[in-house]
Structures are given as structure tokens and as C-alpha cells.
Amino acid sequence: MDTANPGTLVLDAADRARAAELLARFVDDYEDSVANRPILPDVDRDTLAKLLAEPFPAEGVGVEGFFADLHDRILPNSTTVAHPRFLAYVQGPPNGIAPYADAITAVLNQNCNFWQLSPAASVVERSVIQWLAGLYDLGPAAGGVLTNGGSGATKDAITTALADRRPYFRERGLQTGAPPLVLYTSEEAHRCVDKAAAILGIGLANVRHIPTDDAYRMRVDLLTEAIAADREAGLEPFCVVATAGTVTSGSIDPLGPIADLCEREDLWLHVDGAYGALFVLADSAKEQFAPMSRADSIALDPHKMLFTPYEAGALLVKDATKLRAAFAFSSSYLTIAEDDLMLDFMDYGPQLSRSFKALKVWAALRTFGIDTFREAAERCLRLARRLGERVAAEPGLELMNPVTLTAVCVRVSGRSDEEHPRLLAQLLEEGTALLGPALLNGRPGIRACVTNHRTTEADIDLIADRLATFASR
Ligand SMILES: Cc1ncc(COP(=O)(O)O)c(C=O)c1O
Q1: For residue 473, is pLDDT > 80?
Q2: Are residues 425 and 362 in the same domain?
Q3: Which terminus of the chain, N or C, has less C-beta within 10 A?
Q4: Distance from C-alpha of 358 to C-alpha of 361, rounded to nearest angstrom
Q5: Do the Cβ atoms of 270 and 239 come closer than 8 Å?
């Protein structure tokens, strides 16, 4: 190692200076080259196989060696998520303060389990949660926790709903001889709902996937019927997972009527807003999220529309005492006096040791200000509408979904089901864009999802022009 302190895990001043210089250069070079990098790398399998096979060195390669590895082996085999025409899945490029916030997180290395190990971090996380809960008017008793993503947040929300429904859930689990609990969601729901039901022991046989209307929104009439039929059959409905921004089409389930039904039927209402909920920041969209004030819980993803780096999800619960009731455990080795300012976040979710995820969210909100995020959300919506309008105006293209948020699904006329994935591959190979597959009503299409603060009108027009040429051929 090029360090004057062999055998220690501390860098000396010269190494620190070199590491800082190399890091700064790495960040700058990446920023300058991001739009010109291949969106998906031409993966060098030999290099990666060697990476897997080679033993770790007994004597370290040092700071220079580490950065050389980054340049030679990691960077060329990494996906350029921040490319302006990366419009697949629901991914956002990180915001500009992210690398620095993450570096500080590592330096401070707060353990956000209980407040003594992370006093400021606890309050920072609280402030982020409080701001998020305020976006949906969840009321004074609301609380929550940052999670590793939307899937985790939905799983923890359903755990909370189970604990709320069956107070003895913790001791006896679901094996109590009571009627099976049933959960309702739509056919367009994200697979994280099924996954949570499977993990939690609810069983997929007890998850109802309610059909959707022609705009891919859950049909409340069929939901009502399904609940009645299950009660009739002696089962116990307990939870509805509605979606605010379905993963394929960006549709928003009829949240008001679903909230009415949940109230009447005494069901927990969870809203999966992992993709869509943060579009509440955009003036042109926020009205659609108003009924979320009636949700018992909400999952959302700062690592999408707040453009924080992975991982940052959030779970909000209308009555935070229910979240705590589901997750707080006492133990002899963790006895911390409660504090009314600083929370013990280990009591609000499944993790004990937790990173200071809140810093990157807080840093972004402080650095850029809320208005910048409002504008970014609005811009993504505007660009998606522009693409939707271009597609709708093109006789050879079919717009498969109403553009509610930023997902635009396109079917090219005259092209078979099998050709659509090939068109996707072609768009990528020629460097036009990385778009994703769509499957709506059993028909494949091409899906662009604008959750990218770097995308411009020119990028959208390039994609629309190219799709039009597919249609005319
Ligand atoms: C509607 C919806 N729910 C859940 C998720 C999962 O979120 P995460 O990847 O953060 O777990 C996604 C991801 O795109 C999504 O679109």
C-alpha cells in the first residue's frame, strides 16, 4: 500500500488527499461524460469472471490501485442509469449532491437504530418523514420510517396491518384457527404486494387481484363484490393495497371510492405510491393524490422522484403508534430511555442496525430546495405528455394507456408481438434509448417512463421520431 501506515485501516494525510483528488476527478469525469456513455455496458465477461475468481490480495493495492480498478473494471461494466435517455423501468438518476452526502454518511457512520448512536440523524429522519407525511395531509399522529425501497415499505405496511387486525399476531402468527385473512389489490399492482403476502404467510391464495377498467385502474364495483363474496365464504378481508402510479401504465386507482369502501368495511388501506406518490409535488398532478390523506399507510420512494441514490424508500403510517406496536421489541441489551425529540427508529421497522439514509434525502431537499423538485416532477410529466401526444398523432403508432403520470406505452402497428422486444433491442443497440417492455391486456408494447431529471425535449423528440420510423416501415 502506498501508505506510510502499513497495517492500519486509517489513511494518512497524503493518501487522503490523493483519494479526495481521485474521487473528485471521478465524479467530474462521470458528470461530463454521462450523456455520451453507452446506456448499457458492453459487458466484458472475462473481466467480470476474473473479478469473481481472483483472491483478495494479502497486501492491499492502495488508494491508486482501488481507483485503477474502478476505471478499468467497474466503470466499463456499469449501467449508465443517469443517461438522459435511460427511460426504462422506474429509475431516476441521482441528484448532484448525492455523492457528497453519501460520502459524509460513510464518514459519520451513524447507526440509526436508537437515538444515542445517532441523535442528529434521528431528528433528520423525523424531519424527512414529517415533510413527506405533510405532503399527503396524514394528520398529527402520522409517522414512519425510511426503508430500503418501496417493496420493503409495502411489506412493513402489511405487517402493521396484520398486527393491527390480529393483536395476538406477534405471539401466535397466523396459525390461530381464525378465518384466513384476505388482501385485495389490482391486476396491475406491483409484484411486491404478492411478495409481501408470500413472505408474511398470508398466502397468495388469499390475495385477490381485482380486474381493472380501461384505464388500468382497480374496479371498485368488482372489489366490493369480491369482499362480499369472501365474507360470505367465511374468510376475513383485512387490507386493500391500492396503487398510486401502477408500474406499467402509471394509473392511479380510484383512491377516494376505495377509501370510502375501506371505511365501510373496516379494512386497512395501504397505498403503494412507490412510483407515483411523489408526483404530488407537481401542481398539475397533485389533486389526484388528495384522497391519500385517508390512507392508513403509504409506501413511496425517494430513490425515484427525489433522485436520491439507492437505497431510500419510505413508509408513512397515519397512526404511528400502530407501526411501533408492530415492530417495537424490548431486550435486556438495548434499554434506552425514550426521548420526545429523538426516536429509536429500530422500533419502527424490522432493522436494528440502520444507515443514515435520511441524510441524502435531507441534503437534497436542503441543497436544491423543494421548488427544484417540484419543477423536476413537473418537467417529467410534461415530457411524458409530449411523448404521448407525439405517439397519439402518429397513425402507425398506438398509445396503449392514458398518460396519467409519466409512463407511455406504445404499440407499433403492423409489428407482431415477437417484434416488439426486438424493436426495444434495436433502440438500445443504435444508442437511441433504453426503454422497457410493456404488457397491457396481454398485448406487448414498448414503454418509456420519464422519471429522469436529465431528459430533455430533444431526447423525447428523438425517441418519438425513431418510433415513427418503425411504424412507417
Ligand atoms: C408501483 C411500484 N411499487 C413498488 C415498486 C418497488 O419499489 P422498490 O424497487 O423501491 O422496492 C415499484 C418499482 O418500480 C413500483 O413501480
Answers
A1: no
A2: no
A3: C
A4: 5
A5: yes
212 in the same domain as 130: yes
Q: Is residue 336 part of a domain?
A: yes
The closest residue, in CA terms, to atom 14 on ligand 1 is: 90
Please give, one letter per residue, the 3-state secondary structure of 259-319: HHHHHHHCCEEEEEECCCHHHHHCCCCHHHHHHHHHCCEEEECHHHHCCCCCCCEEEEECC
Q: What is the pLDDT of residues 395-439, one digit of tens each?
A: 999 999 999 999 999 999 999 999 999 999 999 999 999 999 999
The DSSP annotation for 194-230 comes to HHHHHHTT--GGGEEEE-B-TTS-B-HHHHHHHHHHH
Ligand 1: which of 89, 90, 306, 406 to mutate, most ligand atoms within 8 Å of CB?
Answer: 90
Same domain flag for 205 and 290:
yes
> 74-94: per-residue pLDDT in tens?
999 999 999 999 999 999 899
At 349, phi and psi to the nearest 5? -175, 180
Interior angle at CA 303, CA 450 and CA 340, nearest 5: 140
* pLDDT reported for residue 169: 87
Instruction: Please tell me the predicted confidence (pLDDT) of residue 173.
Output: 86
Given this model, what pLDDT does residue 6 score? 67
The predicted structure's pLDDT at residue 457: 98
Domain containing residue 221: 103-368
Is the CB of 247 inside a 6 Å radius of any atom of ligand 1?
A: yes
Residue from 87, 156, 187, 190 whose mutation best tests the ligand 1 pocket (most atoms within 8 A of CB): 190
Whether 253 is in the pocket of ligand 1, judged by its Cβ within 6 Å, is no
Q: Give the integer Cα–Cα distance in Å for 208 and 104.
A: 45
Question: Angle at the Cα of 266 (from 199 to 216), degrees rounded to 5?
Answer: 65
Cell of 288: 389526484
Return d(Cα 341, Cα 362) in angstroms, integer: 17
- 355 and 302 in one domain? yes
Whether ligand 1 lies within 6 angstroms of the CB of 151 is answered as yes
Q: Which of 35, 61, 76 is the last residue before a domain boundary?
A: 76
Average pLDDT, the chain: 96
One domain, residues 32 and 146: no
Contact predicate 306/361, CB 8 Å: yes
Joined together, the cell numbers standing for residue 368 give: 436544491
Question: Is residue 246 domain-shared with residue 219, that is, in the same domain?
Answer: yes
For residue 311, cis peptide bond before it (omega within 30 degrees of 0): yes
